[in-house]
Specification:
heterodimer; A: 423 residues; alpha/beta; Rossmann fold; 3 domains; six-stranded mixed β-sheet; two-stranded antiparallel ribbon; 13 helices; B: 512 residues; Trna Endonuclease, Chain: A, domain 1; four-stranded mixed β-sheet; three-stranded mixed β-sheet; 11% strand; globular; SpoVR family protein (chain B); SpoVR-like_C (chain B)
Chain lengths: 423, 512
């Protein structure tokens, strides 16, 4: 009568399409929520999904129903002290008239519809409409990953990869080829024998000769092996190098005394955004941290963000170091090079033209993209003006923006990487 | 009953397929004793994620795609993952064979409870109750759902996701008005449906064009026709009317309306039999598991666990409890069926006075008769006994917006029983729960506007989302919509879509 079926292994994500329909429909809401979340989130926190809330009235599905008012007689359980005809003061507040239960119970979550999106979805929404400029993937020649692809059939190989159909087909063909003439002869001999017998011939010698020939032919045919090593065919797999795209991202930051912890924090958020963004386009990303005051040093992440040093500012020291590292470790034909520089704009005045020249002559030609953010509420400094010349020379791969507060980070980032529509 | 002699089926709380089969066999054997008429059972074990999927598709095993199911899913997922709510232990589908989902997280005791509840309780209700018998066709629903899903995804391919989504939004807004309340439909099979669908498309389009014929006529005849209201009778099935008569819809759009209408029809009996259906299932899981215990097939520990679940299911918080959210249909239904049995088996003087025709009769056939021939409203009106009202300590509160305070109109005493019973029954009357809105007339020779009429019941106005619903109606009809709200014969207010200019607008918003 009853059947018990185990459905646990069936697909469990039946609702995926409906969920995506929902996200699609409320795309604008979600994007807004994501934008807010990005500017609100703490630095290390970009790797999670996000809780999105949408005002319930925006996602309501309206139906015709009764409103408040009129005359309603409702039955409730749990009477203790009421008697018939007793009058009760109308409860104050939202649930007017409905008695105690309903309004209060639904009150929670009525204003906001809250749900969770995954990290991937979060990043999708975050980077929607953004594109990496000059996205040329340079492939590594001596790469270390391979993928095996089918490459037809070969005559030798590993027994586990025998292709049975092709082997038997080859065997069949060989058997036909080697026994063809014998079979034809056999057929003729059999026909001849049958004809003689039909005719009631008593010519014993010729019958014997025929029978002998038939036996010989049969032996000959049987000697051809069913399957020969010669027939075996193997599936051939070949290794193909898997071109992986790699990028290196240089983070350059000014750590001179003028950079406060808050400014560094802003810089860090900007770097993280850039890192996440690059990660979506490249399989492998290396990050090089270069910090500088009057001299530059390559450091690890912790030191980059948290240790403080004081001193003056010579930006060109960082650019020089970056260029050395590029030459030593990241050859242009293998790596996609990105750099983001954050500074409060202070620099020795006579150093700024040096920076410009370094960028123009040595760094920019091999760069995919160089972005400079100036984190300062003040007027632009000399460095900004010099960089404007760089921007003019490399309009596609150089950009600079100013950030005043943490709330600007994401808009500025969007500004920098806005997908450009090619003319 | 046999003495408790047998070994219990299990002593552990882990379930296995073997044990589930064993319990099912035993419960089936007991159910046979009560001659429960059921569809064959298909018990499916699913995971919590799959249960959430099932939730999201309002219990349909196959559904077309729509964002609102996604919304439902997100809400369920969030509630479940944060531990704010548990999932139902079971979902059962009115189909032949009757499909019941059991969650793998359940303990063995829970699985047994669910089998008794869903596979024998709900199942026999689906098969026996007159509403389900006349409104749904259990054997064809799965096929029909498959057809609907395929058709709608074809429409999405042809006309774009957005167009279909908009249309479905509009249909869903009017879904509760897609049912013939007073006529009984003939359920047709999915096979038939597919065959008819293409002819219908062409045929329909021809008819509609005829209705809106623009060939001029002699003027005298014209005026005569103008005076005649059309449709001659008010139409309660709004979706049906739109499907047949909306002037601007494409054939595929009419078909989609039809699909939503059919689903509304499929769910219609369920909305009218909550108390009866849940009460019936609860009554039977209680009875059947107790029988298992009496036969010694389950251990004391199992029984304690069972009773804990059971009392959770039939818990009825009082009106002033923070957990109160109306009357629990499980509790009310269970109490009523139990009391019917008591009245049959051990009637007292009061029962003989109130229920002379069933007091002392055979309980099983009385109970089955009650299950088969009523819906919530009439079931309560017929069978709610004074004892149940006393046990639940029911009372009714009259809220009249023309009076300053609320009034307790009746409590569980001699003078209040009848009033309570009528009031509670009316509370389950779908006709009272939903505003009575019908299609009144169409201006066929003028601006083609559609006028609906809302008849107020007890002066209750329409809710604030009515304007939004009219938008959807407008989208389907294609011309102006007017919604007149009447109290008796008197016109109270009129809503318009698109909204009219200032004065009337402010009037309607004040009324809202």
């Amino acid at each position: 009568m009853s059947h018990v079926i185990d459905r646990r292994l069936n697909g469990k994500n039946k609702s995926t399409v409906n969920r995506q329909r929902f996200l699609r429909r409320y795309r604008e809401h979600i994007k807004k929520a994501v934008e807010e979340a990005v500017s609100r989130r703490s630095i290390t926190d970009m790797e999670h999904g996000e809780q999105i809330s949408i005002p319930s009235r925006d996602i309501d599905e309206p139906v015709l129903h009764h409103g408040q008012g009129g005359r309603q007689d409702r039955v409730h359980p749990g009477n203790r002290e009421f008697t018939q005809g007793e009058r009760i003061a109308r409860p104050k507040g939202g649930g007017a008239g409905q008695g105690s239960g309903k309004a209060g119970n639904q009150g929670e979550g009525l204003d906001e519809f809250v749900f969770q999106i995954t990290q991937d979805e979060f990043l999708d929404f975050m980077f929607e409409g953004l594109a990496l400029p000059n996205l040329i993937k340079r492939h590594l020649s001596g790469c270390d990953t391979f993928k095996t692809v089918r490459a037809g059939i070969s005559s030798d190989g590993n027994p586990s990869r025998i292709n049975i159909v092709r082997s038997l087909r080859a065997a069949h063909a060989r058997r036909i080829a080697l026994t063809g003439s014998s079979r034809a002869r056999l057929k003729a001999a059999l026909a001849e024998l049958a004809a003689l017998r039909e005719a009631g011939s008593t010519d014993q010698p010729s019958l014997a000769r025929l029978e002998e020939e038939i036996a010989a032919l049969r032996r000959r045919i049987d000697k051809v092996p069913f399957l020969d090593t010669f027939d075996l065919k193997y599936n051939l797999l070949s290794k193909q190098p898997n071109p992986s795209s790699k990028a290196v991202m240089f983070c350059l930051m000014d750590v001179s005394g003028s950079m406060t912890q808050a400014t560094k924090d802003i810089a860090k958020r900007f770097f993280i955004l850039l890192y996440l963004f690059l990660k979506r386009s490249y399989d492998k990303i290396e990050v090089v941290f270069i910090r500088h005051h009057t001299s530059a040093r390559e450091v690890d992440e912790d030191e980059f963000f948290y240790s403080r040093e004081t001193g003056g500012t010579i930006v060109s020291s960082a650019l020089k170091l970056m260029q050395e590292i590029m030459q030593a470790r990241y050859p242009v034909h293998e790596w996609n090079l990105y750099a983001a520089q954050a500074s409060d704009g202070d620099n020795w005045n006579d150093d700024s033209p040096l920076c410009r020249d370094l960028l123009l002559r040595q760094i920019m030609p091999s760069m995919q993209y160089f972005s400079y953010v100036e984190i300062t509420p003040r007027e632009h400094q000399a460095l900004w003006d010099e960089y404007q010349q760089v921007a003019a020379a490399f309009p596609d791969s150089f950009a600079q923006q100013q950030i005043v507060s943490a709330a600007d980070i994401y808009p500025v980032f969007r500004e920098l990487f806005q997908r450009r529509i090619d003319a | 009953m046999n003495p408790r002699s047998l070994q219990p089926i299990s002593t552990d709380s882990e379930w296995s397929f073997e044990l589930i089969r064993r319990y099912d066999q035993e419960i089936a054997r007991l159910a046979e004793r009560y001659a429960l008429d059921i569809y064959p059972n298909q018990i499916e074990i699913i995971s919590a994620e799959q249960m959430m999927d099932a939730y999201a598709s309002v219990g349909m095993p196959i559904g077309y795609h729509h964002w609102s199911y996604g919304k439902q899913f997100l809400a369920t997922e969030k509630g479940y993952k944060r531990g704010q709510m548990g999932l139902a232990y079971e979902i059962v589908i009115n189909s032949d064979p009757c499909i019941a989902y059991l969650m793998e997280e359940n303990t063995l005791c829970m699985q047994a409870l669910v089998i008794a509840h869903a596979c024998y309780g709900h199942n026999s209700f689906f098969k026996g109750n007159y509403l389900f018998r006349s409104w749904t066709d259990a054997s064809s629903i799965i096929d029909y759902l498959v057809f609907a899903k395929q058709y709608i995804s074809q429409c999405e391919e042809r006309h774009g996701i957005d167009a279909v989504e908009e249309l479905l939004d509009s249909c869903h807004a009017l879904m509760n008005y897609g049912v013939d309340r007073y006529k009984r439909p003939y359920p047709i099979s999915a096979e038939e449906e597919r065959r008819r669908q293409s002819e219908r498309e062409e045929h329909l389009q021809r008819q509609i064009n005829d209705l809106w014929r623009t060939i001029p006529k002699a003027s005298g005849r014209h005026n005569e026709e103008q005076a005649q209201r059309w449709p001659a009778e008010p139409q309660e099935n709004i979706l049906y009317f739109l499907e047949k008569h909306a002037p601007l819809l494409e054939p595929w759009q009419r078909e989609v309306i039809r699909i939503v209408r059919k689903l509304a029809q499929y769910f219609y009996p369920q909305r009218q039999t909550q108390v009866m259906n849940e009460g019936w299932a609860t009554f039977w899981h209680y009875t059947l598991i107790n029988d298992l215990y009496d036969e010694g097939l389950v251990s004391d520990g199992f029984m304690l666990e069972f009773l804990q679940y059971h009392s959770g299911v039939v818990l009825q918080p009082a009106f002033d409890s923070p957990w109160y959210s109306g009357i629990n249909p499980y509790a009310l239904g269970f109490a009523m069926y139990r009391d019917i049995r008591r009245i049959c088996e051990q009637p007292n003087e009061e029962d003989r006075r109130w229920f002379p025709e069933i007091a002392g009769s055979d309980w099983l056939s009385t109970l089955k008769f009650a299950m088969q021939n009523f819906k919530d409203e009439s079931f309560i009106l017929q069978y709610l006994s004074p004892k149940v009202m006393r046990d639940l300590r029911l009372f009714s509160v009259l809220d009249d917006d023309q009076q300053d305070s609320l009034q307790v109109s009746a409590i569980h005493d001699d003078s209040g029983y009848r009033h309570l019973r009528e009031t509670l029954a009316a509370q389950y009357n779908l006709g009272n729960r939903e505003p009575n809105v019908q299609i009144w007339s169409v201006d066929r020779r003028g601006d083609r506007s559609l006028t609906l009429r809302h008849s107020r019941h007890d002066r209750r106005p329409l809710g604030e989302s009515s304007q939004a619903v009219l938008k959807h109606l407008h989208r389907l009809w294609g011309f102006d919509i007017h919604l007149e709200s009447h109290q008796g014969e008197q016109l109270i207010e009129t809503l318009h879509m698109p909204p009219r200019a200032e004065p009337q607008e402010s009037q309607s918003s004040m009324a809202l």
